[in-house]
Amino acid sequence: MAQRQVMNLRVRHMAATFIQKVWRGYQVRHWYTNLRCSVVSFQCRARGNLARRRFEQMKQKGDAHSAQSTDEAFLSKGSSQEELDKDTKDLIEQLSSEE
Predict the structure, then answer these.
(1) pTM given for the model
(2) Exposed, middle or buried by CB within 10 Å (0-12, 13-18, 19+), for 55?
(3) Distance (Å, whole) CA 71 – CA 64
(4) What pLDDT does 7 receive?
(5) What is the mean pLDDT of the chain?
(6) Cα separation, 30 vs 38, whole angstroms
(7) Is the pLDDT of residue 66 over 80?
């Protein structure tokens, strides 16, 4: 009789320990998931603010400089609107001659 009570007490203790383990694991996983979502959201907002701040600083440094660098980048590619128009006309002529 005493052994049965001890065994029953051990089983109940193990069951309670298992339930606590599962519950604590669930709580920690849930906490970690919320933490990761919060960190990603915070990083997104922080990076957006930094990008906006840098953009404003670039605008304040001078629009002429940025426009000049854009023009230089376009010209450095070795193409111009005339060349593009010529290539387009040549392509249209080739397609119409094939028909």
Answers:
(1) 0.46
(2) exposed
(3) 10
(4) 94
(5) 83
(6) 12
(7) no
How many Cβ atoms are within 10 Å of 50's Cβ, its own excluded? 10
Do 72 and 80 touch, CB atoms closer than 8 A? no
Question: Is the distance from CB of 66 to CB of 58 less than 8 angstroms?
Answer: yes
Report how far residue 2's alpha carbon sits from residue 9's, in angstroms, rounded to the nearest whole number.
Answer: 10
The length of the chain, given as a count of residues: 99
- For residue 78, with 0-12 CB atoms within 10 Å meaning exposed, 13-18 middle and 19 or more buried, which class applies? exposed
- Lowest-pLDDT range, 4-8, 19-23, 40-44, 82-86? 82-86
Rounded alpha-carbon distances, angstroms, from residue 15 to 2, 22, 40, 92: 20, 11, 38, 80
